[in-house]
Input
Amino acid sequence: MVQKNAVRELEDVVVKFVGDSGDGMQLTGTLFSDVAALAGNDLATFPDFPAEIRAPHNTIAGVSGFQMHMGKRKIYTPGDMCDVLVAMNPASLKANLKWAKPGATLVIDSSTFDEKAIEKAGYTENPLDDGSLAGYQVISAPVTDLTKEALSELGVDKRIAERTKNMFVLGMLFYLFERDLELPLNFIGKKFKDKPKVINANQTALKAGYNFGETTETISETFRVEPAPLEKGLYRNITGNVATAWGLLAASERSGRTLFLGSYPITPATEILMELSKHKSLGAKVFQAEDEIAGICSAIGASFGGLMGVTTTSGPGLSLKSEALGLAVITELPLVIVNVQRAGPSTGMPTKSEQSDLMQALFGRNGESPLMVLASSSPANCFYYAYLASKYAMEHMCPVILLTDGYLGFGSELFRIPDVSDLPAIKPPMADPNDPKYKPYRRDEKTLVRKWAAPGVEGLRHRVGGLEKTNIDGNVSTDPLNHQLMVNIREEKIARIADYLPLLEVNGEQEGDLLVVGWGGTEGALTSAVNRMQDEGHSVSHVQFNFIKPLPRNTREVLSGFKKIVVCELNNGQFVNYLRMIFPEIPYYQFNKVQGLPFHVQELTDEFTKILEE
Amino acid sequence: MISYNKVEKSPVELSKQDFVSDQMVKWCPGCGAHAILAAVSNVFPKIGYKKENFAMVSGIGCSSRFPYYVDTFGFHGIHGRAAAIASGLKVANPGLSVWVATGDGDSMAIGGNHFIHVLRRNIDINVLLFNNRIYGLTKGQFSPTTPMGAVTKTSPHGTIEPPFTVSGLVMGAQGTFFARVPDNNVKLMTEVLYEAAKHNGTAVVEILQNCIIFADKIHDMVTNRETREDRQVILRHGEPVIFGKERNKGIVLRGTSLEVVEIGKNGITEDDLIVHDMYSSNPGIQRMLGWMKAPDYPVAMGVIRAAPSESYDDLSERQIETAKKTSDIKSVNDLLRSGDTWEI
Output
């Protein structure tokens, strides 16, 4: 036994795994995160993979990454810069060193730093030798060679041995973070259950990596992250896209309306379609349409048929669906549209995240075409907002756009598993069979909501469609005053949903020097930045909007309590301009970033400090 | 009455009157669409489903006003998308008899993609394709079925686009049912619509419809009452392909193509003629019959193809039933608790 190492206690730590796309970084990161979660840490993760499926080996374009942030306190984001960077080849080091904090720990597979790979990565000198890493704690080991050596007695072929190097490095990390090996060993057993050779190779490599850390002096200091004080309960790790899919399923179950998804594959929303395809046992009808338009139109058809119609997409797909959205507005049918936003315009940067579809969601249709817009703000709360989007769509008989984004969709965090029966009830306004008073546009006086009458139910025959109809009777009409009335009713019906929405909650004081305003997926970064400012004694509060149209009833009141307001968005100022339209009397600062990247906490606190000093 | 399919039957006999809506029919006097409405009103009570189980879906165009004129559930959609809306409706509730009213512009131009894919999937809906070879509602522009060279409002020098042959497109898209009828033969149309309803899968019925305002007599060479017996051949399953005023002409297969022959001439007898097999899954001869064009050939009417096959909606229901039986995940609570979870 070598001498016991020094131990560093950490409040929170960001670990990033990077390597070639074939190096298994997603699996490595996921497994590392699962072990952290089981050890009681709070955490958030984000994968960063190239748009290409298999870019050329050892190139910058082929670098795949997985970042995770864990802590003994509440974790709000996958983190900005990393404390530990695990780099499996020269290209991944080259591409990611800029994301490592000064003094960060670098874990490097030195076996891959041969002349050719170094050149392909764009280095002129071997970075391991030229002193360029002097500002970091470098843990360099010939991981690939050591893995092959460790597996030499198992008789596995070279390719398997090579592919197992990620487990060796993971073993080193588990030693570095004082983790128990039992869980990952079991996980490997489960994952490769019909391939005993692969199990053996992976488990051997994992143990070898751990032992390497323990017995050599490569690692002189280990890290300790104590468990976080999480609320008691049953937990799992969940990505935003899976949470969205499950929220939809939960709403379908609670409402008693079968889920129908009409959707077309598009990055970064495809995972919702794939996830729902798996759950036929819950009755979900999943229709992979021939295009985005057929996706939404089939969902509208299903919704007319009395099912919970849903379509999922990303920005360019939402553009294609615009006309059909208007059809759902005028027919006043429930419809959930999930838009997992990505960087645009046009194809833009499909794997990069942005919040630039807000105006499209609010206004991107012909005619006066109001609908409800809401936004989820963390991977796990995609579950609740997908549930609520479905609830409001059905109870208020209108299309609802749920805005998430690639950052939420691919990102994951811990999810405290609810009991479906504890979720708010969903009561769709179904028309009674043979109701003699049934008329397609007869409305509830309070909510202005019409009844839902599906084909197949006796005594409710009627027609709806894209042509303007008379109120109550639903006959085709071009009467000027009727059109004015229907336009007003459709707008007012959406406005009245505000009576059923929760009020805004302010993080911090209700009055003060600065209110930081965000919406949707920026919540984690804004919360972290504002908490930091508050800890430093600044009079800064934060409010995050999940309900965009209609706005919560106390919006004006909340905005009125502060000397300055800054609206932070990953676009050129869409929400701030929406607020300017509705509350023109309030002056706003705006902070915008459109780089396909999330906000970093540091740039936010710098900006807030600047505004406070102005 | 139709017996094998999954739509619930009416306990009482319905009549034509049961399907007359209270809306004023606003098609031009003399429009071929009136005949289609008559045939549909004839056939719905014969089909025998409960009134509530009929749903009519349409897109945009003159044809697409159809849902207002029958007393069923109706959905008037947007341009080209009727097939997609109807697909969602039928998959949502296979217990409905779903009918699409569409035109040549609606389904072959703007809605072409949905049209071919509903056929490929074989969703059990019935498509009434009003083919008047013109855009009527927008007042006279050429459509994807307008004859080459035709002068229209947007082709003052004549079109330079070859038209679609609807049967070719349907069979090219692997459609399992195709029929063609002229708008001036309501009896045949009623028979054909009944066959379409019976078919488990997407049934396309092309109706050669006259637009009296913008393309009057466009089908006249084929549908004219004086000459139609020589210009049309009405196909009947299991019967030889015979036509003509004198019932003395027929179609034979010679080499790789069809040929018109006269019975009694050159030693030709009825036995030499093609016997129509609408149920054949191989579309070879059906395609050739559907492709026949005037004046060289008679135009084939009636059911040209009705190949038995499984419908998408049946397969969809079956997958769900199986999954419900075999999966451990019976509720969303089960799902939430599946896989890796831990207690804190």
Remarks:
- Chain A has three domains: 6-224, 236-422, 512-613.
- Chain A has a mean pLDDT of 95.
